[in-house]
Fold each of these.
Amino acid sequence: MSQSIQDFGIEKSLSNLGISAENKGVSSGGKYFANGDLLESYSPTDGKLIGKVTTANTADYDQVIETAKKAYVEFRQIPAPKRGELVRQFGLKLREYKDDLGKLVSYEMGKSFQEGLGEVQEMIDICDYAVGLSRQLHGYTMHSERPGHRMYEQYHPLGIIGIISAFNFPVAVWSWNTALAWICGNVTIWKPSEKAPLCGIACQNIITEVLKENNLPEGISTMIVGDHVIGDKMVNDKNVALISFTGSTKVGRIVGTNVAQRFGKSILELGGNNAIIFTENADLNMSIIGAVFGAVGTAGQRCTSTRRLIIHESIFEDVKNRLVKAYGQIKIGNPLDENNHVGPLIDQQAVQQYLDSIEKCKKEGGKFVVEGGVLEGENYESGCYVKPCIAEVENSYEIVQHETFAPILYIMKYKTLDEAIAMQNDVPQGLSSAIMTTDMRQAELFLSQNGSDCGIANVNIGTSGAEIGGAFGGEKETGGGRESGSDVWKYYMRRQTNTINYTDSLPLAQGIKFDL
Ligand code: UN1
């Protein structure tokens, strides 16, 4: 019996979040406006139109920049702990809207409701983190080589921070950037994914409430739904001090180059090709759960999704059989229904890429031990539901070197741990990695300078599901950026070194004499 989407309360959530059938996609200065083309947002869950959004044209963009510039002059003068208070209140509002926003994420993007809630939880966590940090934007003091001199460093805001985010984390990535950017005294301009624009409008509505309640200018947080023309404008605009871009390596290469060209700053979060090494000492019960969640969670559309399993030859058959059994139990369907593990891919284009990758893999010699395919019939009308699949491959296959945003898991054998680590590292991307082992020598080798070359390296945990407190990001073609925890806040500020002479003479550094 097919359940209608109303049974999951989506209409009510949309109305609570201020989403209408027709929406304006630009919010700045306390009002919504937009004069560009019309964008329609369809749900991959049931193929239905959720709402329409008028996107920005270039004149709208210019207006957004002007509003943001004005707001910045005001906002940077508010003390950091007071800016933290804004973020604290935002975190409280997110708790109120958690259920509604989690549901919208699930409906518009297709991840399971549980994962939608998890994403909003990441937003709440980064707010809590940023509130504490707003009293800890520490700089060093140093001993000067000159007598009667004091030397220290301080951090100032950068200005306007541009955030261009992807469909797969349609709300959390914005908040990782904004929560830190705001406590640091910056204002933000967000271009949400064109594949999840209503999530953008919902978030903007929530922060607008907080800004209004505190009588703060809305230019602190502006949003602009637009296509690549607007993206290009942001990237090439010297008014935008830092661009935080999440997306493909292909687009990230262009973004990084263009921002560098104008000496802007960038944070790039690009593709991953994440592997888990299963050693002969792995605790298989927990390892299988980690691998399966990593591979099929968010239908394989996380940057951190597990794409490769590198398995010791002595346990290869056992692991393969357990995986086949586990995949047999996966329920695919409406992500709002909590009985299902896996929802749809984002759209038909993603389905085509999934099918093309399977085809390529087969051509290169891949042997599918769990077959893929597109689900059809009742409950799958959107045409975006696909079967998570597993292929036995060689790491060197061209398709294995490539990130496909879909639930395709590649498995391969190794003999020695050195060989496994070399395979793990032998891809262009460097985001996340993991080893499953109960042997501390193996674990420590994996974490050493001779081990994983990724930004994230885990032991006895899968590749996805990183916590807010750590720096998130990766090396090589993943782009080198870091977001959220640790000392990542420094990316959003400019460092200034100050030397103060409190004597009545002017000794020069390096012992230089300059007498007049
Ligand atoms: C992403 O896929 O772009 O580690 C981010 C995770 C999440 C973030 C993923 N915390 O899986």
Note: The pocket of 2-aminohexanedioic acid is lined by residues 122, 168-169, 246, 302-304, 464-466 (CB under 6 Å).
Amino acid sequence: MNIILLGPPGAGKGTQSSLLVQHHGMRQLSTGDMLRAAVAAHTPIGIQAKAIMDAGQLVSDDIVSALIDAELVAMEPVTGAIFDGYPRTAAQAEALDAILAKHDRQLDVVIELAVDEDELVRRITGRYTCAKCGEGYHDTSKQPVIAGTCDRCGSHEFKRRPDDNEETVRKRMQVYRQETAPILPGYEARGIVRRLDGMAPIGEVTAAIEILLERG
Ligand code: AMP
């Protein structure tokens, strides 16, 4: 299966992707993660992308589409793909169609996670991860069981994304409304959009996704 998870920043795309990876052996293709890895490794793409990401703007369509293509080249054809944070513009949606066709894949479903913006700002500005294993936490809704210690790996180091501050988050949402939301009607016309309540608790969203995947 090939799935797009679509929704503004903080809608839960990354969380739900990780669960799909764990339960179904699918592969999460997050352009945000790929770009952050490039920034951390100081590659030419990373150096170019850093300021754009810090400002909450979009990195060029060609760069992110090339990243996605390269990942699919390296993937077994039977492994399902979850596109997380890609496509984000009409040009990327078009590029994805061409990339999928090239790899003999087809898009099965676009899962839209619908959310409330103010609640999203609360979610995003409170989130942080374990610096060692990447487990996700939140200042109010998901603290480690033992304060300051990662539940999963025991590390005491945590980190926050530099673009998870209120100003940048509002900017990223505006970009989502202007650039990304307009790609939905094209997928709706193909009859492959399923809309879920992204404000529901994580487990409920996961259960709704599971039902969707079973029923097709
Ligand atoms: P994310 O982790 O998906 O929220 O992405 C973090 C940042 O990386 C975004 O605010 C953009 O600056 C950049 N980015 C990630 N995916 C894309 C994409 N598909 N197109 C353009 N920029 C992207």
Note: The longest strand covers residues 109-114.
Amino acid sequence: MTDKVVIITGGSRGIGRATAVAAAERGYRVCIGYASNEAAARGTVAAIEASNGKAVAVKCDVGEESDILKLFKAADKFGTLGALVNNAGIVATTSRVDEMSAERIQRMMAVNVTGSMLCAREAVKRMSTRHGGMGGVIVNLSSVAAKLGSPNTYVDYAASKGAIDSFTIGLGYEVAGEGIRVAAIRPGLIDTDIHASGGEPDRAHRLAHMVPMKRIGHAEEIANAILWLMSEEASYVTSAILDVSGGR
Ligand code: NAP
């Protein structure tokens, strides 16, 4: 159990929500960010509070640096930061690269890559022993798409997650001597709303037969892996990337 604060970007729905609930169960004070769905964010906070947990929700589009600064300010008021889960991420509709607009690619990178890097920057400023902090953990959400490349679907998304893998390795080395562990999870096909936001609500179910375990995963199964990485049980794990994908 810990009474430290965890910031979870995109904590209102899907994997972020499951992680927020699981973190609160382990005693974390949970600070979630959300992009626009205030009702969903309130729902996550209410679920945590109903189990006597502590949670707060802050509107934060991670594509906007000013929003990220607001999120961390709110977390500072809530307690000492012990962990960051860089979970917020977007996909876009199915497309070939030769059909993609610059705006689409820029937004993909702004949210999935720059947003995660800026959140990590703010977390390191607070958690690094170099800056007087007490250490902590950063968990980044990558995707098996980083390995598969997602041709004819969303190569831009896959490339953004490839960047997250490299960032995880590099930042992990950079802060390994400063009390901070950095790791990433590569989820496979997980049952969340993200597939609908890419225009294909039944994508995960449609592709389930391609998963060696022959089923899609659940948000809670990703949350469990994130919580393990955040825990002392993973005390010697850093710059590591864990596939949680049913073998995909
Ligand atoms: P989801 O169900 O679509 O939920 C997305 C969450 O992120 C929501 O809380 C949403 O907030 C928030 N969000 C969206 N855009 C944002 C932005 N610009 N700034 C801040 N927050 C934003 O997604 P998910 O499936 O749980 O995915 C979570 C992470 O896992 C992502 O990084 C994704 O790439 C990764 N992942 C997912 C799968 C999968 O199959 N589901 C597979 C591999 C990797 P609102 O509620 O306000 O919209």
Note: The mean pLDDT is 97.
Amino acid sequence: MEVNRFKDNPIITPDDVSPYHESHEVIGVFNAGIAEYKGETLMLLRVAERPLSQNNNIVKAPIIDFSNNENTLKLIELDRKNPAYDFSDPRTVRLRQKEETAFLTSLSYIRLARSKDGQNFTVDEQPFLYPEAELEAWGIEDPRVTQIEDTYYIQYSAVSEKGVGVGLISTKDFNSYERHGLILHPENKDVAIFPEQINGKYYALHRPVPKGIGRPEIWIAESDNLLHWGNHKHLLGLREGSWDSGRIGGGAVPFKTDKGWLEIYHAADTEDRYCLGAVLLDLDNPAKVLAKTDKPILEPKADYEVNGFFDQVVFTCGVTLQDDRIRIYYGVADTSMALAEISLKELLAELTYEKVPESGGI
Ligand code: MAN
């Protein structure tokens, strides 16, 4: 089973968005969180801007400098000929010896895009969320938006030299907002908070990245207040030799069906080719996996999914549901936004119930 791609894909590209920073170019408008607000579909777009460099041998790494109680954009100049650095991944500059990321090549923040029909979007001129704290000095990325009653909770990757953690911001009107700080410390990303309490608890998917023992896989945690998370359980793991053999993480905010909570997630193989799959979780106990798709429901095939800033990526942070129609909004090749649709009934019928091991945990 495969989704139906929207005929006018991609729906937003870097050409549609002018840079906020002087002497920068927009290289990506992707991995947008989705909210439905006052009859409109809102995209919380991750906009990635890269400093222009007049000299091909110089890479400029952007960071926000919070020293002196100011936040100013600072560009770190790095020489491509310097053997200490590895420039082979376009997203990062890595320190060869320590095998760690020294800088990102772009700075991400969030801009709003608005649409009446969920297909044609107009992008705001100004950022909506911009780094305001030291733990976001390298950018704000990949937001998910969970509506709980009249409040929208935005969960995002807060990136800095200290690592990638998960920040939380809430808003009622997509104008003013409240910052709640880091809810999960590095390294963790791909948080998706469930839209209602289950037996008196909030739940969230998250994706720690163990460096010693263990792998980047999907976990689930509980909370009484959305800020402090505990009772962590391992939810879904990698499968060797398959499309989900490299890393796996929560995608869209899960939604309720009469069969269970449905989650559209991403997984990459060991070659960093990202696909989307679906998993069904127990309505009363979302730490229990009921079924999942054996094969991807969406894999990079269209030209705009295969070729871009980082090739072969489809990555979702949000879906909408109208009757039987799931609309999947997804980032393509770390460059643009695309849209695809799938029937809820057909997707549920496609899930495999057997062969799924009971989830672990302590
Ligand atoms: C990875 C990629 C990048 C992202 C960094 C930090 O390298 O997902 O797009 O900027 O992680 O989150």
Note: The chain has a mean pLDDT of 96.
